[in-house]
Design a protein that fits this description.
The protein is mainly beta. The strands form 5 sheets. Strands 21-20-17-18-19-16-15-28-27-24-25 form an 11-stranded mixed sheet, with helices on one face. The longest helix is centred in the first third of the chain and has 13 residues. It starts with a helix and ends with a strand.
């Protein structure tokens, strides 16, 4: 969907050169250990992304690494023996049917050549965001020092500067932390990226937890909806017309928080969103009317028109080269001439995205006739 595409493009462009940009949901550069002096053994390191199914790290080049991962009850989740790469990097995963890395999991890594070992039990480290108050909070061991990064490169659509900011916080005696990004002048909107980082055992172990700021994406003339939540959290959607419920939908965030679902009517049949429905999604604090986008494209005048949320951003992608964005007027209407971008031809696919203040998106797709 447009929202997913634009947010991913923004993250890839703004974070060029970072090691996880090619993965779903952009990553953050953690840093690379300096190359040790000639003849010295490279210190063994372990990197953990909470919720993921794999671990990685650095060690002596071309050495044998063995790792084991057990859950809190002592049951085996994964183990392997492998050779490090020429640069010393190594990478391994839990067994296919095991859950991702979580609180209480114990990881042991051994370098057979250097006899270095790392043994670590993952503590409870959580990450949550309130996109209304812009407060990010969670749990961590008391006294743990944390780096909290927030980044968003879609903000120019809203007339704001992009940002990529790191704040340092410490978990208090009760094992909690928080930071209000309002104090930094930052509005955390849907699809913005958050990452929490910490280290242990003198920096030999690094921990990360990622979160995409929650948001909802709806497609006109389809039953499809999707977006972002906290991982494994549920979302329920209700659509009403004239005060009467016409459709509902439910979904659950996956390990990265991304979700997708369908809205159905009382008979269990797919309900195609047409615009004009009153939509509620309590998990995201959403209560608004789906716009009647009614997108229209003229290949004779090269003009695109539609109706979105009043005084909010719109984005248009047309054919292979056409792109435009702007703000709607008081009635939500917009009009754009794409003559200077190659124009509009018969058969061109057009995508119109209507954004809310929180960054949610309603999308319509059409083909130029």
């Amino acid at each position: 969907m447009l929202a997913v595409v634009t947010s991913r493009l923004g993250r890839v462009t703004g974070r060029a050169g970072r090691v996880l940009c090619a993965a779903v949901g952009a990553g953050v550069l953690i840093g690379v250990l300096a190359t040790p002096a000639f003849g010295a053994n490279r210190p063994l390191s372990l990197s953990i992304l909470l919720g993921d199914s794999c671990v990685d790290g650095l060690a002596k080049p071309n050495t044998v690494i063995k790792f084991t991962i057990e859950d809190a009850s002592g049951s085996l989740k994964g183990r392997d023996a492998l050779m490090t790469q020429g640069d010393g990097s190594w990478y391994g995963c839990v067994d296919f049917f095991s859950d991702g890395l979580t609180t209480g999991d114990h990881i042991k890594v051994v370098d057979y050549d250097t006899h270095q070992q790392l043994s670590y039990t993952i503590p409870r480290i959580t990450l949550a965001v309130d996109r209304v108050s812009n407060v990010v909070s969670g749990k961590a061991p008391a006294g743990m020092r944390l780096a909290l990064e927030a980044a968003d490169f879609n903000t120019p659509l809203f007339g704001k500067d992009p940002y990529d900011i790191v704040k340092h916080v410490t978990a208090n005696g009760g094992g909690t932390y928080s930071h209000d990004f309002d104090t930094d002048g930052i509005d955390l909107m849907a699809a913005a990226q958050l990452e929490l980082r910490a280290s242990a055992q003198g920096g030999a172990i690094s921990l990360r937890r990622d979160l995409t700021v929650p948001g909802l994406f709806v497609v006109i003339n389809q039953a499809e909806f999707g977006g972002y939540l906290r991982p494994y959290f549920p979302i329920g959607i209700t659509l009403k017309v004239g005060g009467s419920k016409v459709a509902t939908g439910n979904a659950v965030g996956d390990s990265s928080g991304q979700f997708d679902g369908r809205v159905i009517d009382a008979d269990g049949e797919l309900y195609r969103v047409v615009g004009g429905e009153w939509l509620k999604a309590p998990a995201l604090g959403i209560a608004w009317t789906v716009p009647n986008i009614n997108g229209a494209a003229s290949r004779h005048t090269n003009v695109l028109t539609g109706t979105c949320f009043a005084h909010e951003p719109w984005v248009v992608i047309a054919g292979y080269f056409g792109y435009a964005n702007g703000m709607t007027n008081g009635s939500g209407a917009f009009s754009v001439d794409l003559s200077d971008q190659g124009g509009i031809a018969k058969g061109d696919q057009v995508v119109i995205g209507c954004f809310t203040k929180a960054g949610d998106v309603v999308e319509e797709e059409l083909v130029v006739q």
